[in-house]
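Allow me, if you will, to draw on your knowledge of protein folds for a short while. The matter concerns a single protein, recorded as an amino acid sequence and a row of backbone structure tokens. Kindly check, if you would, that the fold set down in the tokens agrees with what the sequence suggests. You will find the record immediately after this paragraph.
***
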Amino acid sequence: MALTAGTKLGGYEVLGLLGAGGMGEVYRARDSVLKREVAIKVLPSFVSQDPDRLRRFEQEARAAAALNHPNILAVHQLGIFEGAPYLVSELLEGGTLREQLVRGLLPVRKAIDYGVQISRGLAAAHEKGIIHRDLKPENLFVTRDGRIKILDFGLAKLAQRQLASDESAPTLTDGTEPGVVMGTVGYMSPEQVRGKTSDHRADIFAFGAILYEMLAGKRAFQKPTSTETMTAILNEDPPGISQIVPSIPPALPRVVYRCLEKNPEQRFQSASDLAFALEALSDSSASSMSAVAPQRGSLAKWIWIAITGIAIALAAGFIALWRRPPEVPQIEEVTQLTDDGESKGGRLVTDGSRVYFNEGQSGSWRIAQVSVRGGQIAPVSMKLRSSEVADLSPDGSTLLVFEGGVNYSFYFLWLNPLPAGEPHRLRDLEVQDAGLLPDGGIVFSAARGLYVAEKNGANPRKLLDAPPVPYALSVAPDGKRIGFTVGGNNSPTSLREIGVDGRDHHELFRKGQDVPSVCCGKWTPDGKYLVFRSWREGRSDIWALPAEKGFFRNSRAPVRLTHGPLSYSGLTPSRDGKQIFALGSRRRGELVRYDANSQKFVPYLFGISAIDPVFSEDGKWIAYVSYPDHALWRSRVDGSERLQLTYSPVEAMYPAISPDGKKVAFATLQYDTYVVSMDGGSPQNIPGCVAVAAWSPDGKSMLCTSLRQGKQLGEKDSFQLQTLNLGNGNFWVIPSSQGKLGGFWLTQDRLVAATQDSTKFLLFDFKAQKWTELFKGTFTNWFPSPDKTYLYFTTGEAEETKVLRIRFEDHKLETITSLKDFRRLEDPVQGTQIGVAPDGSALFTRDAGTQEIYALNVRWP
């Protein structure tokens, strides 16, 4: 679709055409609001004519827009104009790297500089789980001031399949499944050529081919036909760079060849490591290239220069040895143990021969087991309604089990004999987390404290009175120390430990900029390392913290063991310490609508990976949270005029659009509450609210859930409801609202809320100051219809979860559908998702990801 000067796309005015190609036209335009010039790329017709292809483009474009790095093209907005999708990005002045390479090889210093910039940009993208898959000189832009910008993240998947004889032609398809060839011939990795599933290391291979071309002035793999080029990628090594450019520093080709290894395991394992290697070469390469050949002169002069140089080199070598990073643990192999496609969650435990884990859905978890070598999954006999793995006794004879489910603040504790036997409950303990001591004693957290008790749960003794409540409890191998995590909400997370005698409480590691949201430490059997996970922007990676210092280990800095693409959780080291068992997740959701006529679930808003959809009162706008990165977005209900409203590190949930449609209130995973304009800008904090629920119909007040914390053993934390006057900032606690949460205004004088135990819906009349019962029964998630006529909710039945709605006027109850065969998305914080579209259709987020158990082989120093 061609645009003419003066055409308006949202807030942008087209000024003229910049260029055109296979992936559409690019126009220069002016942002009428921010008064700046931008570039607008309009995608070709084949994208808009294929709904599935368009959906994938939107997903990739949203991911690209989330990238904020000086070496990646900044994407400002995604939209649709007359049925054609377009991207608004920063306007660049300069040319592509290809335009420089057609003139021949680059100076070494410039090639290294460009290489560092490219690898930094790739590292930023890979950190967010985004892989380019079509890196090549045409997709690298060099600005007039020498800055590299990586272009077209996410557009590689859109290129049409074509047969070509030139190795620069794309041979991509729009999928990433095994057997599908993706990439540009000449820059494809061997695994891409074979059609195998590829990860971020395919980008590293493509980078190696580009760096080779910058240094050698010719392509690493270039044959007369595409087929021959791909054969060379699989079976041949490129000509030695030093044969083409004899003066090149010898360390530089080694970096190139490591990128071009046929086996992904032998390449650089992260782009950040690659950037570090190139940065280390930059100074030495520059000096070596600037050195001049010695002229005729005194032989003695050069002998003294040589002696001085040797002395300096020896001194530098000693300093480097002293300051070198310590030898670190590395993941050598990852083996998938399960493959049943079932949802999984929580923690894992192992007895050395089997791994025990949770499977199913929130509210109806069941415990299963699999061999440490993988194979058939078998259930663990359990008579509880919903049971979760808590811990395993050192001899492997007994499972410690939580009984509870979704929305439970506390759990009952049970001991279940293995391989079979009758479980028995540990007295009347109600805990938030628990573990087993080597002598059979119990350690548990409850009521804002940490306790130890005898084998049967008797005689609890408080070790620590430290809000917030400790969680992710782990007993050290020596049985003398207890590790746990604290933080979250409004404080940074940290890993801590305390002696079983209550002494020596100290911090092991605190969340930082490089290692955010630390959680869930587990000691290796020898006690030398603490493995834990760190959450960043929708993905959790595994880290290891050394327990001791040494002569050449002058730092206890944590070591990152994984770099995606899986998100790992539930970590537990094997009994011999050679492996880490973990739940590996590829997290993705699909927004769907239940069509009552066809009785099927169909994609909604192109099936975007989103949760928490809410609508404006006029039904024209939608706000939602992207999954799994929890960024807040808004768009029109047809998907046009998309705008991202929040960015990392903010992780949003529970959005609510104001009655006038101008603002969105939302909570965060840290349980702060904010309000942001629908046109974007800086979110404003609303102190005092744990989670926002709703705006009042007049827009002058907000209904908030706040937390009332129990102060004594046995006293539960509880929620209560309060209203916030947005004019004067005053809170008013709703009478008799203790133990109630959520809540939506139905009218200015009436609201609906739920009990904390998810067994009742209640109505509150502001005039009468009275609560009345709307519904009694077990339920999970719930949401009112936009017209406030019905309350939609899902039941918490273990056998068959159903979707119901109840009419506020006469309390009439209707069954909408069953979710028995529907794979619900289980968000770690928010659980099952449900929403209601303006037409009354129930909305859900279908789990389109995978959760399987993996064994990661570790090579320890």
